[in-house]
């Protein structure tokens, strides 16, 4: 083979051998004999390959030009517009396309748009696209310079545009995702720059690939209060944005969140409690070992807040979790299995670490032993370890083969002492062994090494004693 054929054989670009030779000959002529055929061939090969991207997820708005493969998922309507100084109207048609990594809107102009409107392009066609990317109103857009069908290429994408949580990428629009509602929040209002009032609410959505926070705007915000945790839903025509380094799925006027009948599996993956560190944001899960009563407090602005502390244990350790705001109302008690997403690890009582679950966190009470295999959650930003644990790791703590409760969770050991480690806040009504604390609802016996005084308002940690005493019997 000659020099041109050798370079072409190593070229990974959508151009025929004849087109490549013609381009090389033109380059030699342009350079006035300063480059031979081999040099010109290498220059042309570089020009052809430098804008090639492997996937839609690699496209960025700042690129001058890109070349990529994409599968047409839907075709919009032809629109006309007036051009300044031109008697003939311009034409544009938007086409939604996707590959296995994401979605993109393709804008075709004038004659290309007319051809598409005449039916020369169909949903399901795979295109080789060359164009200029930009950040459009609803996400990534590519203004198409050239697009040709490739009948031999295969892209595994459903034509309905449905994807899973793990496949979402920044800038996607017209996204359809099915999942299960993990957590919801109340509607909040805010003032826009034009003086109008806006409304926003959030819910957390999970599927078998992961989870994502969904932001609902204005009229769509009410869905967060209408849907209950555990409801299977489909988000229709959402768009992906980034907030504080994490992706969010947004739903505006064009979108919807619809309840569906499908069964959807959500298998949370967790960071080991024993490996969390200060200032991390982690996903943790475990069995609730103790649950304090809800406490009310006054904020600096005069409003009233609420918090409830629970202690969660997995096979690597245990940690106190502070549930703030609406999360303090979650029906949660000893023996329940819970998953807490995006909890912030902070300094806690007596310099112990504690997890704070507030706005932006999700708290999910799991049913029927829902669990995950041992793995670390890749997007949590939390502790990473080869011993990262899923919720199956403490499945044996939830019960026995005969359906009875294990010791330490609502049962008595043979020596009359429960194995449950608790933290209780209240008034000391008896000192000694055990200490007895009245939390306002019941009196609780705690075996502890802590020094307390009669009548003192304290938070006591220790081992719950199975025997409970009526406060009236103490006086």
UniProtKB/TrEMBL annotation:
It comes from the Archaea. Pfam families: tRNA_anti-codon. One of its GO terms (biological process) is double-strand break repair via homologous recombination. The keyword Nuclease does not apply. The keyword Transmembrane helix does not apply. Residues 372-436 are annotated as: Disordered. This is Single-stranded DNA-binding replication protein A (RPA), large (70 kD) subunit or related ssDNA-binding protein. It comes from Halapricum desulfuricans.
């Amino acid at each position: 083979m000659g020099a041109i054929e050798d370079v072409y054989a190593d070229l990974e670009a959508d151009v025929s051998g004849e087109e490549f030779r013609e381009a090389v000959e033109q380059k030699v002529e342009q350079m006035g004999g300063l480059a031979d055929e081999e040099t010109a061939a290498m220059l042309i090969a570089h020009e052809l390959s430098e804008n090639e991207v492997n996937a839609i997820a690699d496209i960025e708005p700042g690129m001058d030009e890109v070349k990529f493969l994409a599968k047409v998922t839907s075709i919009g309507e032809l629109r006309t517009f007036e051009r300044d100084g031109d008697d003939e109207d311009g034409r544009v048609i938007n086409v939604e396309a996707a590959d296995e990594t994401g979605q993109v809107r393709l804008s075709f102009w004038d004659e290309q748009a007319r051809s598409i409107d005449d039916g020369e392009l169909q949903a399901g066609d795979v295109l080789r696209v060359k164009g200029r990317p930009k950040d459009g109103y609803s996400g990534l857009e590519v203004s198409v310079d050239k697009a040709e069908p490739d009948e031999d290429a295969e892209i595994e994408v459903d034509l309905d545009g449905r994807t899973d949580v793990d496949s979402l990428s920044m800038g996607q629009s017209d996204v359809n995702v099915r999942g299960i509602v993990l957590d919801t929040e109340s509607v909040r209002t805010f003032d826009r720059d034009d003086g109008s009032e806006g409304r926003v609410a959030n819910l957390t959505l999970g599927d078998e690939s992961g989870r994502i926070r969904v932001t609902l705007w204005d009229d769509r915000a009410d869905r967060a209060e209408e849907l209950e945790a555990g409801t299977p839903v489909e988000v229709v025509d959402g768009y992906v944005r980034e907030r504080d380094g994490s992706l969010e799925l947004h739903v505006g006027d064009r979108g919807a969140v619809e309840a569906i009948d499908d069964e959807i599996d959500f298998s949370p993956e967790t960071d080991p409690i024993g490996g969390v560190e200060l200032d991390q944001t982690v996903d943790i899960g475990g069995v609730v070992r103790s649950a304090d009563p809800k406490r009310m407090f006054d904020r600096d602005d005069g409003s009233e807040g609420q918090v409830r502390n629970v202690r969660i244990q997995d096979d690597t350790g245990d940690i106190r979790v502070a549930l703030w705001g609406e999360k303090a109302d979650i029906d949660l008690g000893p023996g329940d299995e819970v998953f807490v997403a995006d909890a912030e690890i902070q300094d806690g009582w007596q310099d112990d670490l504690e997890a704070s679950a507030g706005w932006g966190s999700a708290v999910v009470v799991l049913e029927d032993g829902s669990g995950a295999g041992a793995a670390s959650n890749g997007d949590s930003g939390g502790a990473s370890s080869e011993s990262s644990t899923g919720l199956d790791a403490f499945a044996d703590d939830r019960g026995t083969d005969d359906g009875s409760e294990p010791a330490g969770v609502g049962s008595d050991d043979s020596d009359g002492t429960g194995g449950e480690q608790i933290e209780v806040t209240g008034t000391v009504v008896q000192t000694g062994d055990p200490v007895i604390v009245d939390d306002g609802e019941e009196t609780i016996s705690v075996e502890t090494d802590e020094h307390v005084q009669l009548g003192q308002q304290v938070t006591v940690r220790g081992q719950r004693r199975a025997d409970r005493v009526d406060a009236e019997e103490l006086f």
